[in-house]
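Exercise 3.2. Students should predict the tertiary structure of the chain below and write it as structure tokens, then compare their answer with the key that follows.

Predict this chain's 3D structure.
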Amino acid sequence: MKLTTVVDRLDEQLQTEAFADLDASANGLQVGPDESTIDHVAFAVDGVCETFERAIDVGADLLVAHHGLSWGGFDRVTGSTYDRLQPLLENDLALYVSHLPLDGHQELGNAAGVADVLELEDRSPFGELGPEYIGQRGSTSDPYTPSELADRLATTLETGDKPVDVLEFGPEEIEEIAIVTGSGTDWLEEAVEVGADALLTGEGKHPVYHEAKEAGITVVLAGHYATETFGVRSLQSLVEEWGLETTYLESPTGL
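Answer key:
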């Protein structure tokens, strides 16, 4: 399949253009020739030297990643930027990136994947960013206690054997959960406004401790990497339906 066809299909599915003015990441094809044929696609959370080299080792023509190389463009192609670009260019490995579009996709996205793990019902978009959303919220049929919620996540997410941290400032039974994966504590106020019992994200910022305490809401920190494996895995399943060979490259950071 032509690279342009794969890129066009992914862009359409993920509504990449809708996030063009909202996301620091240059979503879409970040590295790749105008004309190329794709037979094998690798998938990873992070587009870095390790995953580039592993994608090359398995014979991939394209790596699809959640975190890419370009965050506002390059001033100079030197140092670590040069080191990361070199294996791509030398081995004709293309790089496609989807950051916020993949976080918030209501079926294929990272937040949707976490909601699947927790079997949330009555779901709706959450995490406003301009006219778009980067998360999802929903309710549980059977409430979780904070420790039960942490245990469920710890046993199903790729946490790198790191614990799931919980700031237990909300009710003893958690029914309404708002999710923004990665680094999502900036949406705490919105979670309170929509009546969530807990905000679930990957990593926290120091101020969220007292903000959550004062607001009476629980915050669950399940790991940036761990909460963001779902989107690329969903894209892998989609691309397999197109008849292409795929490989998922695990590289948990524990962070």
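Discussion points: The two ends are 36 Å apart (CA to CA). The longest helix spans residues 3-14.
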